[in-house]
Amino acid sequence: MKIIAGYSSVNLTHAVCKMLDTKPVLPTYKRFSDGEISVDIAQKDIQDDACLLIHSLSEPVNETIIALLLTINALKQSGAKKIVVCLPYLAYTRQTAASLITSLIDAAGAHKCITIDPHTTIRNAIIPIDALSTAQLFADHIKATHNLQNLVIVAPDQGGVERCKHVRDALELTSSLACIDKIRVDGLCTVQAVHGDVLGKRCVIVDDIIDTGTTLCNAAEALIQNGALEVFAYCTHGVLSGGALDRVKQSPIMNLVITNTIAPKIEIIKTPKIEILNITLILTNHLQKNRYTD
Ligand code: R5P
Fold this sequence. Notes:
The protein is α/β, with parallel strands linked by helices. The protein has 2 domains: 2-132 and 281-289, Rossmann fold (3-Layer(aba) Sandwich), CATH 3.40.50.2020; 135-277, Rossmann fold. Helix content is 33%, strand content 28%. It is built from 10 helices and 14 strands. The protein has helices spanning 10-19, 43-46, 61-77, 98-108, 135-145, 161-170, 214-225, 244-250, 266-269, 280-289; strands spanning 2-5, 28-31, 37-40, 50-54, 82-87, 112-116, 129-132, 151-155, 178-185, 188-195, 202-210, 230-238, 253-259, 274-277. The longest helix is centred in the first third of the chain and has 17 residues, at 61-77. Ribose-5-phosphate (R5P) binds next to strand 11 and helix 7.
């Protein structure tokens, strides 16, 4: 199988290739004066091969989606036998429009999709999707850095409860989860209540996405106001847009752990409160079990 580095995931693709002892194929991306993107992949590099394209749908999201579709199309035109797209961060899964994105990926010529911690299961997806999870990665990190006594896993909203249960189970904890009752009006989220016993506890919030950071930072404030001892947070996808970094810095969150599903910008890497876990092993373990060559 040939592994192709989409432009948004070059470092991650190199890391995956290094672990699988292979070299990535690098498409040539050019831009027309009006902003159109052109993608070229040499026929000799992929013809009659199964191809895995790694291409996270990170900012600027809409442009990155077009680049993804054009790269799939270029692979098809250069004779790829099978195209599997790995989208470590699959944008638009917070909206019902997610199935439109997966239909476009299918229409462009991809046969299969791999992603990590999508916000929800994508209903009516035409293309088969393998959804991988960071639950074990987060649980291992929590075990290595925290005393599990007196620790409670917190869902920042009702929608995050299942995800939190997976982390709690991976930790082999039997304690109840706490959950924040959050409402969002005109995009702004407000905490209504904290459910569960957080008094005197070390709280670990687990979420899939940190975008503006308001969900997480408001949840952390509410936990402290309800008597939590300390608050830590784990979010798979560090979108971190629109003032999120400052919000996190000023929040009571002691440490925020994200992953490299989205290539982290330098200011994120330099933020002492933020730690970035590597998802390369999650991907390579999956690829070794599922060769996708047929
Ligand atoms: C929403 O349900 C998601 O799981 C995240 O909590 C949300 O997308 C985070 O967004 P923000 O950081 O902008 O509050």
